[in-house]
């Protein structure tokens, strides 16, 4: 069994994004794409996949269900914290990305039978 964390990064687009004129939202998406690229490039992060639910969730998302998700294997909790911090360090003009996007990380392990469980012969 791996000691890596299985992390679900849950992200929601907030009202500040929807308050922008449609002609101005492109810069937010460029910054969001840059943040995702930085996340994928981080040492200790292996992105397994992404999911965008903007077809069935339209409008702001401040919690479940989230707008989009990234599933990744991450080496440690400090790296998860650094990944979440990307929303503070990725800029959209004079603002940080967190002005428009919220992130929450759920940490666990890969769903497998733990080593301390005795499995009967099959």
Describe the structure.
The structure is a single chain. The protein is of the alpha+beta class and 122 residues long. It has one domain: Apc35880, domain 1 (Alpha-Beta Plaits), CATH 3.30.70.1030. The chain is 28% helix and 30% strand. The protein is built from 3 helices and 6 strands, in the order E-H-H-E-E-H-E-E-E. The protein has helices at 15-19, 26-41, 77-89, and strands at residues 5-13, 45-52, 68-74, 91-92, 95-96, 101-108. Strands 2-3-1-6 form a 4-stranded antiparallel β-sheet. Strand 4 (91-92) and strand 5 form a beta hairpin. The longest helix is centred in the first third of the chain and has 16 residues, at 26-41. The protein is elongated.
Fold topology:
Blueprint: E1 5-13, H1 15-19, H2 26-41, E2 45-52, E3 68-74, H3 77-89, E4 91-92, E5 95-96, E6 101-108
Antiparallel strand pairs: 1-3, 1-6, 2-3, 4-5
Spatial extent as radius of gyration: 17 Å
Q: What is the strand tally?
A: 6
Provide a count of the helices.
Answer: 3
Oligomer: single chain
Number of domains: 1
The helix-and-strand class reads alpha+beta
What spatial order of strands do you see in the largest sheet? 2-3-1-6
Q: Class in CATH? A: Alpha Beta
What name does the CATH topology carry? Alpha-Beta Plaits
Shape: elongated
Largest sheet: 4 strands, antiparallel
Q: CATH superfamily membership, which one?
A: Apc35880, domain 1
**Mean pLDDT over all positions:** 92
Brief summary:
This protein is an alpha+beta fold. The protein has three helices and six strands. It has one domain: Apc35880, domain 1 (Alpha-Beta Plaits, 2-Layer Sandwich), CATH 3.30.70.
């Amino acid at each position: 069994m791996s000691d890596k964390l299985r992390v679900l990064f849950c992200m929601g687009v907030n009202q500040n994004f929807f308050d922008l004129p449609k002609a101005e939202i492109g810069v937010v998406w460029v910054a969001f794409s840059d943040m995702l690229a930085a996340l994928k490039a981080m040492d200790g992060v292996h992105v397994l996949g992404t999911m965008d639910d903007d077809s069935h969730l339209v409008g702001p998302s401040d919690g479940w269900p989230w707008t989009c998700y990234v599933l990744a294997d991450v080496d440690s909790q400090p790296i998860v914290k650094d990944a979440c911090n990307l929303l503070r360090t990725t800029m959209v003009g004079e603002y940080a990305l967190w002005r428009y996007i919220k992130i929450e990380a759920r940490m666990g392990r890969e769903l497998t039978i733990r080593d301390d469980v005795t499995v009967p012969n099959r």
